[in-house]
User: Fold these one by one.
Assistant:
Number 1:
Amino acid sequence: MLAGSVADILLDRSTELDEQALKRLASQDSTLATSSATVVGVRLESGEIIRARKVVITTGTFLGGEIHIGLKAFPSGRKGEAASIGLSKSLKDAGFRLGRMKTGTPPRLDGLTIDYSRMPKQLGDMPVSPFSFIHDSVPHANDQVACYQTHTTPASIHIRETIRGPRYCPSLESKVKRFSEKESHLIWLEPEGLPEHTSTVYPNGISNTMPEDIQQKFLRMIPGLENVVMTQPGYGVEYDHVDPRELKRTLETKRVTGLYMAGQINGTTGYEEAAAQGLLAGANAGLAAVHSKAECESQEAPQLTLDRSDGYLGVLIDDLITRGVNEPYRVFTARSEYRLSSRANNADLRLTRRAAALGLVRDSARLARLDTVEADMAHAQAMLEQVVHLPHIWEAQMGGSRRVVRDGVRKSALDMIRKGFLIEDLWAGARDPENVPLEHIPKARKLTGGPEISAIVPAWADVPLDIRQRVVTEAMYHGHLRQLSTEANTFKREESMRLPADIDYSKVRVLSHEEVDKLSIVRPDTFGAAKRIDGITPGGILALLKYVRQNRAAQSA
């Protein structure tokens, strides 16, 4: 591990393209069918050269970064840290299409100068869910620090909004312009750590570029912040990003072999989006590094690729590489057609074995734990399937509910969960008043009024809470999940129909000029991806399919 500031990437351009050709390509809305260069390393600010076959760029807001505070502007990627200017120029010279975006951060506050007595308290989740499936508990779970809610008041605000910023976490200036009818906007006061470590508070919801003195005055107009001390002003950051349609599904660039990109350089915003891309780009760079160049070029080397039905990371990458961005991109459940099957509580079941097959997960204990989870779920489901009654018996169990259909068909406890007659109190593990504050526990746990599962199947109470949650969730969405599975299979068939990378779309008859332009920019790798490009018509897809089939038949003749 070597720490250092990277000044530039090193490229081997031993191709037929000269410098002038590369510059022309940079000004055109097209993507090369084959790479124009190969990455060979990086150069540090110190002048030191590090040779590397694979390089992952995660520049964040540092690529051509410029900070704005009021009318002041200066090169920087983050307060107190230098921007990367040379790298931005090298990417443009290599032919990459660059765009400009903006993000921001709110001022930081001294929590010891805040009056919390006038603000509603916002408590964390209880019970707490670990980020990882290999953990059962979270440190300090019963010692969480509360957040607080306050709001802005009508104020005179300096407006500077020339570069497109995030739609879903907008600056205060954007809120004032877009929602001029509102007299106030919510602010969430979030401690940046435990009280014994820091008193700094992050006021979520008021990122801005106002002058420092105006920020201080503005803050003291907010309820509870009348005497607040600002420890760092908020600021906006403008930065360069690469058109993500320049990327493959592995997050390797199409123009430069061995160069991968992740995070805000791809037009996204948000910590989770950046971390997910970094994971995938790093995994693929590592997998490619341990295989020969010939294996990588022939696609025989293993790769980690995810499609839309695999999870939210697959949705993110597919949206980026097929549609591009015109504003900072964030992931939402609404973006996924498969959100009912892409749940947080089944990520291990969906993805861990795929990672293990690629050598990315090698911990035998982790795989053994996954085996145990699958076995426990199968056992719990079998337990529910074994309790079978006729409708009139279930009606009695339901307290005489007339909603039970007397169709003479025996139904299992699992069937009754699927129909909503039996419920699971998923907060059962949070009832201990010694460990959980009462305000953490929702007042309304039951929506159906039916009995809990353990009242009908006593052994159910012995099943671990996590397993019960998983099985009940699968049962509740059973009909939808079955339909999604059919749709996912159709989707995967379309994704398996590969498109050659070197197609000259201008030779495909019937395609409009718009379709030729968009397909030439994106260069989709499958017919499924081509269908998802905005502006590509069903007729265009059929023409493309016919063209590819004719070419393959001619080549095999």
Number 2:
Amino acid sequence: MPPRKQTPKRGPAQAESSKKPPETKEDFEEELKILADQAKEETFSNWATQQGIVYVKAAALIALMAVYANVSLLTLSPVYGQIAATRLHQRVIWTALFIGWGGNVFLNRALPVKTIALLPLVAAYIPMAQYFLFLFSETFGAKLGPAITEALTLFPLAVLSTACLADVLEDADLSKLPKSIAGSAPGLGSYAFFKLIEGQSMHQLIAQIGKSVFQTRIGLELVLASAYNVMARSKLLVWAIPALFHAAFYNTHLMTPMATSSLNSTLHARGWSLVDRQESTTGYISVLNNHQDGFRVMRCDHSLLGGEWTKFPRKIVAEPIYSVFTQLEAVRLVEIPNKTPDSEAKALNIGLGIGTTPSALIAHGIDTTIVEIDPVVYDFAKKYFGLPSNHTAVIQDAISWSQSKKDDLREHYDYIVHDVFTGGAEPIPLFTEEFLAGLRHMLKPNGVIAINYAGDFTLPPLGIVMNTIKEVFPTCRIFREGEPPSAETIEETGRDFDNVIVFCTKTGEKVTFRKPAEADYLDSLARRAYLLPKHEVDESAFSATAVDAGILRVNETEKLAKWHDQSALGHWAVMRTVIPSYIWQNW
């Protein structure tokens, strides 16, 4: 028996409609209106879907470009330093945005393939291009090196991304906007969204960096290249195989055991070895051994946090290779009334480095609190530089910590050591009158503070900081780490960069040092030679332009910020004389 044909059941409205077709003019017009409304609804749905796709594509292109711009900056910092990397970064971005936005039609005509098809290919080759360009960092110099590197890596990617964005937004329907606004809305809106993502993503990148291999500098670049591939699948991606092969097996900047082993093979041939490395909140942190001269150092990006001799046996404490950290220990030698015995004294050390000064304070039996912002620096100091465990550690930025503890720690410390990582330019908030006044608040009436500031005597910032310190602590003596260079040397190099150590008290009496006893040296050759500061600095040594500049306050930080670039370039040059170039550029 053949199957019965199924017929759909009719609803009441359908039945009524079939029974009563439109007979009057009014019925016919009503039916036409219903059909028109249905067509209108379908048209709006299609329009909304199409426009949604347009804006999602545009948002994805902008977001990827903004994140990559930040990752590019992070990748430059181990070779050039954070400040040198940012000097011309925005100019590279602005130029790329301008050319890409205005040249999208030209690119569509000139290129043999769609513009968007090139994005994954360019993104894949950036890590490889950076690797080879970093080898020429000494030739390029810190002044132009970052811009040259980004001009050959980030710039092409930003131009193509912006051109693709312009292509996508040509399908955006802005007919409901006034003509005076519709013409500029896509460009202005895109730029505003770009800046928003750029700012927000940098905070997230820094907070998450180093937690996995894909959250490192090169790892992020590979992740972003994959994201571009998802957006624009193309047969051209087969040409990216050499770049991916290089990243996997030859790029020593990738934080994998294989890359680290490969880097060590290169370094061993030159008498160095990489002990450990990790990317962290303040930068790229690594510990290196020099086997020829027998010392170990810790670096953060393009600056040194400290070092110690490995060729001399550690007795009570290690032998530091930089005398400035030993001279800071002279804070104990300042003569003050009613001095507290070391066994009862309390010290605050802001900024850790490898832990030279706090290790000595602890060895003298002083109850020491260490405030360090970077957890990796703290871990490496304990693991590779023998930082003792009998201390109080605060892994937090010093400003928020001091503000939260200002009432609990009033006149609490006998000694305060202020030794923050500068990296070529001062962390401005830690040298303001307000922050230093907070430290004064924590210092006992007969307490002593030692402040280390790395700066250039030929530039105003050093003088401004000294003005600020003396405003808060009127009784001070100022020393530099080493002998001042000759006038000819300053004229030749254009700088006089050195560590400046300031010892201050609250008593109002002249700062004097007692003669060191044998126990003060901690059985250390370096301390026997450098514990007492020798090179006192007269106020006339500071830049004359700083005399009228006043002091540094929270709302006047531009006084120092405007000198960051010049100071950082000088610091970069100094670092290249302290450690060989191949160490900096190979990470």
Number 3:
Amino acid sequence: LLEEATELADAREPADVAFEAADLLYFAMVKCAAHGVSLADVERSLDRKHLNVVRRPGNAKPEFVAGAEAEPRAEAAPEPELQTAPEPPAEETPVPRTSILSPGIRAALPGEQIRMRVYASDALTAAERDALLQRPIIDSAEIMRRVRPIVDAVRATGDAAVRELTRKFDGVSLDAVVLRAPFAVPALPERVRAAIDQAYANVHAFHSAQLAADTRVETMPGVVCSRFSRAIERVGLYVPGGSAVLPSSALMLGVPAQVAGCREIVLATPPRADGSVVPEVLYVAHKVGATAIVTAGGAQAIAAMAYGTQSVPKVDKICGPGNQYVTAAKMLAQNDTAAMVAIDMPAGPSEVLVVADASSNAAFVASDLLSQAEHGPDSQVVLLAAGLSDAQLAAIEAEVHAQASRLPRVDVVRQSIPKSFCLRVPSVAAAMAFSNAYAPEHLILHNARAAACVADVVNAGSVFVGPYSPESCGDYASGTNHTLPTYGFSRMYSGVNTATFVKHITAQELTPQGLANIADTVMTLAEVEELEAHRNAVAIRLRDLQ
């Protein structure tokens, strides 16, 4: 690239400029392809650049100035003077070397070692540490721009739009947009059915224990306050599809909705090529008491459940994971008062943070890192090496490469692992402090006295304690829920649980004596706020009691 760029810079005749520009464009496209960058990505970058209304000088970077001075070129016509913006402070110009956008980060090629970037906490600046805490920036405005027409189309034409969009995006022509219960339960291999049954039993037991008892408190004599829960009547559960079969997501969403007592459970999942539903997902839908299955995925399925169509029931709340377009559709629907629908949480790429010390099993640590990395190229994988020696860290790196090379999804891992990082920290305490700042979706404690560290966890979606608690168990069958907050949202969101599908209602009952006891307090505060009707509602009753 540098050679071709130099030849283009030296070219003077139009034919030579065209020839050298073609060479440079060719090698630029090779560079893009090697890093998984499409022409659409380049176009979006150009779109952002052209929005800059203030131009800056086209000054060469310092490393090129010396070469230019050593090799004088022909004098060029003077450029017109440009109105320039103030240059940013020098320390803000470079992209932090810890950033996902740092130069040199690319997918591992076949034959290259599949390894994470490694940093030492004591060598990082404050800005670099902050960069490690950041997730990749998502162009939400661009995604919303693409999703809004999909949502609007479904809202306008209902089933017709769902059919057309499913044909367009999935290549599937639907006979029916919705399947109604009772479903034709498919025959599954006995081993698969038994596994689903066991997972269902464990998830059901844990979520049943989460049902909260009603609360009743007499706050003062004659004043009784209570709180009781009621199930959300109509819920929509989004079960992703695409390249994977995900009955586990149907379980994690369907079981707590069933335990909560939701009257109507609508499950949406992308269809197979023939328009049918994945048999394992259909079996789970039967077990959790789903009332309908929408045979569509993506933003169109979310819109159909949010607004309702000729055949898709409208729901009151939508839960479930999905890609950026699914998340955008959920956010759009939630913010539209016409939809009157809630969602469980925002979502981003799946992520894991592993704390490892000298007691850790290198093979176990590597397997947990990879179980997350195989989800997708944008999966976030973090290893905190607490006091590990060079040899101990090298053992983990060797296991990551060896195990990754044997995976069917090794091409995905070659992209996600190089974008991930290992941070060397001096102690487990330092690791826990960084983890709480990062707020991971999954936190795995591979260190000695792991159980004691749970008390130090402030922000995390779900915690996996000790060497024999792999994330996979929580993903499938231990009983906890795997629909968890990502992207740092575990600072303020919980994962899906039984409470996700209920609402709490309060009540109060006052006796005549109770009203008399509290009347002066209420009337005084109403006077302070100058709400006379509020004060009078109490006063008129006091007069009646007299």
